[in-house]
Amino acid sequence: xxxxxxxxxxxxxxxxxxxxxxxxxxxxxxxxxxxxxxxxxxxxxxxxxxxxxxxxxxxxxxxxxxxxxxxxxxxxxxxxxxxxxxxxxxxxxxxxxxxxxxxxxxxxxxxxxxxxxxxxxxxxxxxxxxxxxxxxxxxxxxxxxxxxxxxxxxxxxxxxxxxxxxxxxxxxxxxxxxxxxxxxxxxxxxxxxxxxxxxxxxxxxxxxxxxxxxxxxxxxxxxxxxxxxxxxxxxxxxxxxxxxxxxxxxxxxxxxxxxxxxxxxxxxxxxxxxxxxxxxxxxxxxxxxxxxxxxxxxxxxxxxxxxxxxxxxxxxxxxxxxxxxxxxxxxxxxxxxxxxxxxxxxxxxxxxxxxxxxxxxxxxxxxxxxxxxxxxxxxxxxxxxxxxxxxxxxxxxxxxxxxxxxxxxxxxxxxxxxxxxxxxxxxxxxxxxxxxxxxxxxxxxxxxxxxxxxxxxxxxxxxxxxxxxxxxxxxxxxxxxxxxxxx
Length: 487
Ligand code: ARG
Known about the structure:
By secondary structure, this protein is an alpha+beta fold. It has a domain at 129-234: Mac-2 Binding Protein (Roll). It has 8 helices and 21 strands. The structure holds arginine. Arginine binds next to β20. Arginine binds at residues 13, 15-16, 380, 430-436, 454, 456-457, 460, 467.
């Protein structure tokens, strides 16, 4: 991150340039991601019975009819035995395939309809159209809405989201809902009732007479909620730094971070070198930029993740967390940086401490106002063309309205709906090379939310060229679907 106006010349920054590091770039258009599907169905081996076509070598061909009958009956026996063996093999293969598709999860990114084993694509969940034979794709649709984490359940019948009435609600139901969203039950935080807003006219209410059935079968639409409160659900304790804002404001003129101030910030290394930043969202998942994991960098085994450490020098002595899986946004575009977001799943879950904690993903229905104060952090260059910083830096950047950011004098239409601008049109303060993938956060209702991930900018801290960040609000659906699919 840079805090000084950089001297010209600046260059067009279209994402992290690998420069001398792994200089060979993949061909444009080459798919850098592992192919999970085989395009050709494995062919069933066709058995061709070896029937001898040459005559018996016996020099004297017996011509008696009884011996030829004997010969044909033994041939029949062989055919029967061979076909019996074949039948057993075919049955075994069929039984295996049936077991595989019924018992095992679906191939690739497909999601299984639990009761039937039918596989459907993630986009078919909660889309108001029933795709699973038993409708599970449409009856387990939960989300947290707005800055107060209001639990809402989707009704495919009326195609609307309803808040859940607090009456008879328990943490056990909360855990089920969190699990269905893709969270792990062991980080479950709490649920509480909050006073209903006037805008809520209809609710989902637990039917106590429904007996011990599925949560979603117990929830029924109702216009009445006795307690007058709706469920606010926290699936993970997120967005709480250990260093309070009051201590923060006492830092004079400095931008060097303190431990626990940005506990969700991680440093992503390849071969002992800091490449990009990232943000912790759960014990298993990190958010980073798709442009950080292109080409050779799409291989999970090249990465090491460092959390809760401020100094780059200290990271080299540690081992870091290994990455199990990298999921780049399927609509990421290298040239325009459209959908510049990726998920990293860790091989072993992170251990949360005072200095290692997750940030909150923005909920649908959250509004971030133009000029809203946000903070960026990272080990990026401190001036245009500089090298990676050795200590974690941070700086405040206000959000810039997209219309302003897209004006002719600024980015002239290059800022897409999947992007958000933040910084200063006068220049001087910005993120820079090496900050990519790292967090752009804001504090609202006393929690810290991930507003964006550092993506691109022309030069660094140049006037009229503010930083551009991935717009996290538009990515949360995609993030949750992947957390559900690859739990
Ligand atoms: N693409 C850069 C990286 O890979 C981040 C650039 C941010 N640039 C800016 N001017 N804000 O680290």
